[in-house]
Amino acid sequence: MMLIPTHHFRDIERKPEYLQPEKCAPPPYPGPAGTMWFIRDGCGIACAIVTWFLVLYAEFVVLFVMLIPSRDYVYSIINGILFNLLAFLALASHCRAMLTDPGAVPKGNATKEFIESLQLKPGQVVYKCPKCCSIKPDRAHHCSVCKRCIRKMDHHCPWVNNCVGENNQKYFVLFTMYIALISLHALIMVGFHFLHCFEEDWTTHGLTREGTAETRISQEKTQPLTGSSTECSYFSPPTTVILLILLCFEGLLFLIFTSVMFGTQVHSICTDETGIEQLKKEERRWAKKTKWMNLKAVFGHPFSLGWASPFATPDHGKADPSQYVV
Questions:
Q1: DSSP label of 159
Q2: CA 179, CA 87: separation in Å to the nearest integer?
Q3: DSSP letters of 172-228?
Q4: How far apart are CA 113 and CA 128, in angstroms?
Q5: Is the pLDDT at 113 greater than 80, yes or no?
Q6: What is the rounded end-to-end Cα distance, in angstroms, of the chain?
Q7: Binning pLDDT at 50, 70 and 90, where does residue 263 land?
Q8: 43 counts as catalytic
Q9: Does the keyword tRNA processing apply (predicted)?
Q10: In sequence order, what are the residues at sequence separation of 6 or more whose Cβ sits closer than 8 angstroms to the Cβ of residue 268?
């Protein structure tokens, strides 16, 4: 059986006639500085909307079912501030991951002028992407959804409607971390809420048939005329139970999913090997660095609270022309 070399396609790219710069149109005129990056993909946009809807649903249940009706104001304030802060950071990280250029290579730059500007030495090789007509830097891969070559592309994530690459991997890692944290926080609050309401409130209000009609009438007269008959929720016990069960299912599902994604992303950063490179088992052609240096390369130099902030942009430095040649 004939074995196909791992870098068979790159060997094809080494042939001089493969570049064919005369067949590449000049790159489009660059847009104004600060132009927002956004991928117009129907599936990705739908997934992003679902992500926001699920976070806002969790926000609704936590506030209006568990915290606001509670008479323990200290508990409500502390947990309300913590949950809203984590939810805000999660959504902010999602926006940064979705609207940040992941490291797209200029489209159509495989022109004769650009190749000459690289001042190639004898024996040096450049790679061209036949799909977007770009000179590919080392470790760049083409994304069929973004229709661009992405530097250090890890994967395309429909939940953020974008590729995870060199420039936005930090925001994706923060997004998975904060979603995992709010999922865990919501599950803990649901557990306490079930225990408290089942033992002290629901057993005497609507979930049991104990008590005489006179007792129930006297309770109704002494209770305030609001939409809630208990301190557990503004909704009826059956509705409250359904809302909490849905939140519990959502929290458990996303806690597992985002925890796994967070772990794989951190492992990928520490080993300095993207998901695509691991999947394709590509030969390592770049210098090996320590795990700490790899983390700083993604989250920024030096270590600070900015690592946990989706508003702090890591400094990746300017593009080096030598990254296009081998």
A1: T
A2: 7
A3: HHHHHHHHHHHHHHHHHHHHHHHHHHIIIIITTTTS---S-HHHHHHHHHHS-SSS-
A4: 14
A5: no
A6: 31
A7: very high
A8: no
A9: no
A10: 154, 274, 275, 278
Specify the residue for token string 């004939």.
2
Amino acid identity for residue 157 in this structure? C
Q: Is the peptide bond before 122 cis (omega within 30 degrees of 0)?
A: no
Residue 134 host element (H or E): strand 134-136
Burial tier of 73 (Cβ tally within 10 Å: 0-12, 13-18, 19+): exposed
CA distance 120 to 318: 20
Stretch 131-150: mean pLDDT = 88
Q: Residue 84 has what pLDDT?
A: 97
Q: Please give the full DSSP string across 75-115, using - where no structure is assigned.
A: HHHHHHHHHHHHHHHHHHHHHHHHHS---BPPTT--SHHHH
More confident residue, 17 or 149: 149
Pair of tokens at residue 114: 């650009």
Q: Which of the four pLDDT bands, split at 50, 70 and 90, describes residue 219?
A: very low
The band of 222, judged by pLDDT with boundaries at 50, 70 and 90, is very low
Whether the Cβ atoms of residue 186 and residue 246 lie closer than 8 Å to each other: no
Give 284-303 pLDDT, tens digit per residue: 777 888 999 999 999 998 88
Residue 45: phi and psi, rounded to 5, are -65, -40
Least confident of 66-75, 119-128, 131-140: 119-128
Angle among Cα 193, 198, 202 to the nearest 5 degrees reads 110
Q: What pTM value is reported for the model?
A: 0.80
Considering only the C-alpha atoms of the chain, give the largest distance between any 2 of them, rounded to a whole number of Å: 98
Q: At 311, give phi and psi (nearest 5°).
A: -95, -10
Average pLDDT, the chain: 81
Count of CA atoms in the C-beta half-sphere (13 A) of 96: 22
Please tell me which residue in 143, 146, 149, 157 is annotated as part of the active site.
157
135 φ/ψ angles, rounded to the nearest 5 degrees: -80, 120
